[in-house]
Amino acid sequence: MTKPTSMTELEAVNVLLTTIGEAPVNTLTGNQVTDVTIANQVLTEVSREVQAQGWHFNTEDKVVLSRNEFNQIVIPADVARIDTPDFNTVERDGKLFDLTARSLEFQASVEATIVYYRDFLALPDTAKRYITTRAARIFSDRMLNSETISKMVRIDEQRALTDLKEFEGDTADFNMMDNYSVSRVMNRGNNRRMI
């Protein structure tokens, strides 16, 4: 028996194909039949959707974004979401736009929390499994519209989501005291004692 390794994009596409009863393929390059192309597109679509939610493995805090020669901040193409705690900003034409100043120009670098799109191979296995099972359900629904297959794959999808959320809880080191609402309630008694 060979030692298991992390799931590849080819293996994920083959999971989608076998869900609808198609034979697996050996490569994703070159001319492919329609089912392979659609399976790959659905996998990419679901990967974007899941990653855009923002998980510990693809979110970075305190990223410094520098201005270009026009004092504008260009947002990298692999950014799914961006939040600037010190500014009220949105994305406009691939650049950061300050809603308060109503300007694309910034006077200094900006610190942001960024959710990045990651390559499928760079994702943790629990994320790959959830993305693959979710994509398999969507793919089978679009290709076959079989209630029986959809129900079976939906059970796998729910298990994979549970595993991903558990992985997120284990690796993200969440602390209820980091949440303002919780810490305010927890510290309420301490504030009264000081008075």
Keywords for this entry:
two-stranded antiparallel ribbon, alpha+beta, 5 helices, 3-stranded antiparallel beta sheet, 195 residues
Task: Describe the protein.
It is a single chain. The chain has 2 domains: 98 residues, no CATH class; 61 residues, no CATH class. The protein has 5 helices and 5 strands; from the N terminus they run H-H-E-E-E-E-E-H-H-H. The strands form 2 sheets. Strands 1-5-2 form a 3-stranded antiparallel beta sheet, with helices on one face. A hairpin with a 2-residue loop joins strand 3 and strand 4. Helix 1 packs across helix 2, helix 1 runs parallel beside helix 3 and helix 3 packs antiparallel against helix 4. The model has no long low-confidence stretch (mean pLDDT 89).
Number of domains: 2
Pick out the low-confidence regions. Answer: none
Oligomer: single chain
Helix fraction, binned, reads 40-55%
- Radius of gyration (Å): 22 Å
Question: In this structure, how is the largest beta sheet organized?
Answer: 3 strands, antiparallel
- Number of E-state strands: 5
The portion of residues forming beta strands comes to 5-15%
Averaged pLDDT, please?
Answer: 89
Molecular shape: globular
What structural class do the secondary elements suggest? alpha+beta
Succession of helices and strands? HHEEEEEHHH
> How many H/I helices?
5
What distance separates the N and C termini?
68 Å
Strand order of the largest sheet: 1-5-2
